[in-house]
C-alpha cells in the first residue's frame, strides 16, 4: 500500500451520483475482494422487487454509493473545516462506508428472523476472519481492522466517523433513500444531497448543520418519512416477507425431521447449526441465487404446504391482507387459526398478524444546529414540520385469499375476516 493514489482515478458510472470516484488502491483492493463482489448478488431491498418492479438494485451498488457520499463529505470537510488531517482517518472513513453492509445475507431481515442471524455479527466476523479482507486492512497497520470494526459497531473510539456512518443523518441513509426512490420510481424520496452535504460541519465530537440549512434537513426527513410509510412498510412488501419467512420456517422444520427431499448445500449449515458455529466461508456461499434455486426445487417437494408456498413466491401469488380496525387479542387470533385449521388450511403455514409501526422510523432527536447564541440545539426545537410527523400503528392480517375462496367453508372464513375490519 505504498502508493496512496492512482495516477488516473478509477470510476463507476452510477445512476444516483453520476460517477463514483476511486483514487486509492486500498479502496480498489477492497472492492475487488470476493466478499464485497458477493454483494452484487444480494438485492438491496429484499422482497420489494415483487411490489416495485424496478427495485432490482444490489447491496453492491448501495455500498459504492455510500462510499461516494462519504468521499464527498470528507472532501467538503477538508476544504472548509480542516478535517480530517491524516490519510489513515480518511481511509478509515472510506472503508467503513464501503464495508458497512458486508455482513448482509439474502433477503436480510426475513432470513435473520427465521435463522436468528444478525448482519452486524457477520460484518464483524468477515472483517476479522476473512483472510482476503483482513489481509488488505492489515496492510495499513495491525490496528486498522479493529479500528474499522469500532467505527462500524459504534465503539465510541471515533465519534465523528461513527456519526457519519450511523446516525439520524448518515451517509448510509442518504444513499439508500435516493437510490431506493430512484429504482422504485417514487419522487417523494428525493432531497438535495449536495446542499445537505454543504450545510454539514464537524463540531467537537459531533456533526452539526448550519441553521440556515434547516429547510434542507426538513426535506431530507420528509423523504425518509415517506419512503418508510409508502415503500419500506408497504403492506404487500410486508406480506412478501411473511411469505418468505413461512417458506424458510417450513423448509427448516422438514429438514430437521428428515423430510426435506432437496436442500442446496449452501443452506445446510443454517438448517443444522446455530449462528456461532457457522463459518465465514459457509456464510459467504449464500446469496439470492441460492435462495431462488431452492424455491424452484421446493416446488417439487412432497410436502404440500412447502410446495405451495414456494410456488407462490416464485410466481408472485402473494398472501392477501385485511386492515384490522383494532389490535387483535389472543382469543380472536386463536378463533381464526382454529377455523382455518378445521377448513384444511394450515394456520402455521399461511396466517400471520402484523402490527406495523412507523414510530421507529420517525425522527426523534440527534440532528443539531448551532444557534445564534453559539449553543447546540436540536432541529426539532426549530421545526414545526418535524413535530407534525407523528407515529402510527397499522394492524394487518395476512391470509391466502385464493385458498379461502376455493374452500368448502369459505363463508365462515370470509365472515371471520370481515369481523376484523369492523
UniProtKB/TrEMBL annotation:
Gene3D superfamilies named among the record's database cross-references: Hypothetical protein af1432
The biological processes this protein is annotated with in GO are: dGTP catabolic process
The organism sits in which domain of life?
Answer: Bacteria
Q: Which positions fall inside the HD/PDEase domain?
A: 55-186
Tell me the Pfam families matching this sequence: HD, HD_assoc_2
User: What parts of the sequence cross the membrane?
Assistant: none
Output one GO MF annotation: dGTPase activity
* SUPFAM superfamilies (alphabetical): HD-domain/PDEase-like (SSF109604)
What is the name of the protein in this document? Answer: HD domain-containing protein
